[in-house]
Design brief:
The complex is a heterodimer of chains A (357) and B (309). Chain A has 357 residues and is mainly alpha-helical. Chain A has 13 helices and two strands. Classes of the chains: A mainly alpha (357), B mainly alpha (309).
Chain lengths: 357, 309
Amino acid sequence: MKIRIEKSLAPKRSSQIIVPILATVLSLFFCALFFVATGRDPLDVYSAMFGGALGSGYGVSETLVKTIPLALCGLGVAIAFRMQLWNIGAEGQFYMGAVAATWVPLHFPDLPAFVMLPAMMVAGAIGGGLWGLLAGWLKAKWLVSELISTLMMNYIAILWANYLVYGAWKDPNGHNFPLSAPFPKAALLPTFGDTRVHFGIVFVVILAVILYFIFKKSKWGYKTMVIGSNATAARYIGIDIKKQILLVMFISGAIAGFAGMVEVSGIVGKLQPGISPGYGYTAIIVAWLGRLHPAAIIVVAFLFAIIQVGGFMIQTMGIPSATATMLQGAILFFVVGSEILTNYELKIADKEETKHE
Amino acid sequence: MNESLIVSILAASVVAGTPLLFASLGELITERAGITNLGVDGMMLVGAETGFMTAVITGSPWLGVLAALVAGAILALIHAVLCITLKANQVVSGLALTIFGTGLSGYLGKAYVGMRLDNPFVKMPVPGLSEIPILGPVLFNHDPLVYISYVLIIVAALYIYKTRAGLFLRALGENPAAVDAVGVNVFTRRYLYTIIGGALAGLGGAYLSLAYAPCWLENMTAGRGWIAVALVVFALWDPWRALVGSYLFGGVDALGFNLQVLGVSTSIFLLNMLPYIFTILALVLVLIKKEGRLASPQALGLPYDREER
């Protein structure tokens, strides 16, 4: 009896949901091996992680707070990924958005909130959008791999933000700390009750709904997916691929930039180094694990926020927070590896004639 | 600028370029075989960490190098299983490798941050050769790993261009079906070259932690793995050009430091941007000309499926 692997023409819907869940569980086991190998009880680690993230009001609110940037950035990169444009620059676009948004209250501190906040949102989206567009332009014009350009631009953006807060934007009253002046009250997003959960969570839901309709119902959403799955076919039916690359990279970057605005306005209240602990990178996994589906991306973002907050909490046990990154990378491994189960079918060769759906 | 300053900048370029050289040579071999591995940065980090850890525990930097080679190879093996056997998306698998490697190195290395290495690799001038004016101090007054990189690049170039196995290696990336047709196993060879690529990335990381720094810091590669990936394109998949490119980028890396020494009062943050800006510019430079597009192996990134010949 021989087992053969064949390309499946229509991936089954059920397996698209079950396989990622299975992959996540397997990666938990996989990382448990590392914990055992380094003399730690995996059950202790995991219970501390999940308990820390979900076991208290503070934990839950922190988890929601981290869900917001992860979901926004995840939605942003998903748009590009659908077109097989590998925008891995959400991290840099996030920083550029935060920088652009910070420019507004630093230069016009007296604006009323109903002008200030929309102006910051637009600035953030444009900041991130232009940063994405630059990579898109390099791709459209000279075929420069967006993987490399966006990644390089992440480092440049982070250094740029540091340059500002260590230099021109340093708060003169800040005791020489690398922080911008704190935002005026009008530049802060409202929060819910006395938690740190802010209005950004509403934007997440609105954006996901908009993207759902664009992806599933609009002609443009269909068009970008055709380019992603078959660029040659797209060219034959007259789609201007270069224009779409520019547009998609701008929008993808704009959403990550918007996330940066939401973070400085909703959580930090100023510009400072390290405003993102790698949200833009984690967003890559979030988008892929969520199969680029807006609703699923929110769910996965919540799951990854648990891992992130849990990773932070376990530091008190002396376990490095890098554990969270390791776990996230492992999850992506298993998800990619298990895609063979959704994209291919295992067939038993000597039962060739048996039916399969 | 006087002569001794130029010599010291060139020598610093060679040292700063060496980790890039190991890593980009590894990626070059992997890509020549038709597999893209974007996990270079992750493999370098794990190589740097395991190398450092092993050297601290055993007291031998050479065992550290060995550990880094093995660690890089194991990580590359995961990529190989996913991409060659399971035909997974190579881009996403490589990204997973980078993220996993970053996390794993941070997890394992936490206790070693800030620790001192008692016997890192130190300069060992080559008797005779290091006496040659200019060339001597630039090329032959370094640590042993630099000399190993010279040997490696020569061996790799001879292997790729002059041997029968090298011919098959090049064909793997251009037309795997043709390689298959003459009875050479596409899958095992792709496994082999992916693993070699990983080992070299690990070695590049170990160079950072055992010779260049020498210490272990979280994320100490600062994106060098990605620069190495870009260098392969810049090098048009040619080992000799990878050598030149690595030293060029090593020079940019060293330039920021030397500008400060010269008293250029630009912000350190702007100077640190230089390698990343140069990487993008270098890609534009080769891609403006047609050869940049033509040099890429035709079957790069495509899983080989015997059914679809």
